[in-house]
Amino acid sequence: MQGGSSGIVYGGLKYQASKQPQQRLLEPSRTTCLNLFLLSQLLQARCIADVRADAGSTTFLAGTLSLKEENEVHLIRLSPAESELVCDGLFYHPNEIWDLKSCPFDHRVFSTVYTSGEGYGASVWKIPEVNGQSNSPQLEQLFELSGHTGKTRR
Asked: In the predicted model, what is the mean pLDDT of residues 124-152?
């Protein structure tokens, strides 16, 4: 962050961008190298994925991992000036998220691999149009693979 800013806080997660080239999170086709640190007071962010279908901006999805709290998927965008991270959506997820991936051709579709008390599963989700709403609406579950007793492979 420029000017000594400490990032932004949204939904319990603290987002901070740094332009120091310690770790590349973006593939070489993107013009910006970004380090993204996800810190949490209540929830841990286990996974982060870039939204490849959104060619107009640098966008990420982050999924939380908690056994006791509701889990969330955060839609995070790097501002056009590349000086701050903006949370474009905060969505409830019913299970403990172990991995997520974005759809390569639709920026509103992504998949999660998760565990619940009963077993393991995977789902494909669609992010609804937000259109300036103050509260993010529910994710639409397109389909689910559930009932696994062993780990779901990526």
From this structure: 77
Neighbours of 71 (CB within 10 A): 20
Task: Please give the order of strands across the beta sheet that includes 8-10.
Answer: 8-10, 13-18, 35-40
Mean pLDDT of the chain: 71
DSSP secondary structure letter of residue 2: G
What's the 3-state SS for the chain? CHHHCCCEEECCEEEEEECCCCCCCCCCCCCCCCEEEEEECCCEEEEEEECCCCCCCCEEEEEEECCCCCEEEEEEEECCCCCCEEEEEEEEECCEEEEEEECCCCCCEEEEEEECCCCEEEEEEECCCCCCCCCCCCCEEEEEEEEECCCCCC
Q: 4 by DSSP, 3-state: which?
A: helix
Whether 74 has a pLDDT exceeding 80, the answer reads yes
- The model carries a pTM of 0.69
